[in-house]
Amino acid sequence: MRNKVLNILRRMLRLLYVRIILIAALSLMSVPLAALLGDLIPPGLADRIGAAAVDPILATLATSMLAVTTFSLTVMTGAHRAAWAQWGPRTHVILKDDTATHSILAVFVGAYLFAMSGMVLRRTPIFGEQESVALFAMTLLVIALIVVSIIRWIAHLEDLGSFGETLVQVERRVAVSLRTLAKRPCYGANALIEEMDLPEGGQILRASQPGYVQQIFTGMLQELAQQAETQVYVAVSVGDYVQEGQDLARFDTSDLDEEVAKAALRAFAVEGARTFVQDPLFGLSVLGDMACRALSPGINDPSTAITVIDRLSSLLLLAGAEPEGDGSAYDRVWLRPLPPEALFAETFDRIARDGAGNIEVQLAVQRALAAIFTRGDGELAQAARRSAARSLARGIAGLSAAEDRERLERASRGS
């Protein structure tokens, strides 16, 4: 339960409007705080600075911050549209989670609200000479924060929505999810393989709404299974799209408490879109989209596709890392493991299909798959070998020049 609450809080903090509300609340609180600190200001200092000194500064802040916020929002939406058109619609998910942009916009909006509330309260009897000096000091702090944010914003705009920055952000998210899954296969649960004979009967847990399975909280299911003294067999995987009433899991008991069943339903995060947290296939498919989009006739940029291929080879090797621990942490929960074939189906198979007529792309695919086969172990290496065979067949069929086909065959034999 604690992990679920922390995940929800992390997701909320990544939302733009949440950050703006938090900064705005702090900004509105700072003006009354200045009034409370007025008694700490020496009367002589108030006479030297003058209460009216803060009025033109607040007016300038209010006007400029409104313009800067509007301009920044225009730039942000333009970058979103450019990334959507250039690198694929699902790269928009990364830009929506751009915490640097969110923080900077929140500072701009907060500074605007600070200036507006300061100008309003300055016209009330609450603010005397000493309180106005305290507000003046607060205003200087806000100006310093604005300067830092503008410098960050200028530096951030250099890469906002670019291929390199988008690729790095997606790669980072995929690496985290792949490392987590490799260290804790099935997220700490037992592996539910197809050859297993599942117990008959039991109580079915069904989805209450349609959507994608974003996360499965195995720790929460373990606690509920211990409470009910039963086993839980999860019927879906993270990233699956489920319909309302579709089976999510089955408890190995026909006498499950209604409250336990309701709590178990909350262990499945079912929403309208996929996320990167527990879904490495989603991130890999986004990278596949970027490579395939680069190979489209409208863009025709094989070098970009090759860059993605090279990054993918390093990412997929993370899936073959040794797991931590000797057993399952959640022995009452059973989950389907992520098949290695799915990793290649979302990436190299698609790229080899769309780049079938490009010798440079085909050579890069064979080189990357050879690296995975050489450095990977077990099922991952064998899946890479099968993917290389499929890619070779597509390349030979798609290349028109005989010398290119021979070159590809030599490269595949050498690797």
TrEMBL record:
Pfam families: DUF2254. The chain crosses the membrane at residues 12-37, 57-79, 100-121, 133-155. Keywords: Membrane, Transmembrane, Transmembrane helix. This is DUF2254 domain-containing protein. It comes from Ruegeria aquimaris. InterPro entries: DUF2254_membrane (IPR018723). The keyword Electron transport does not apply.
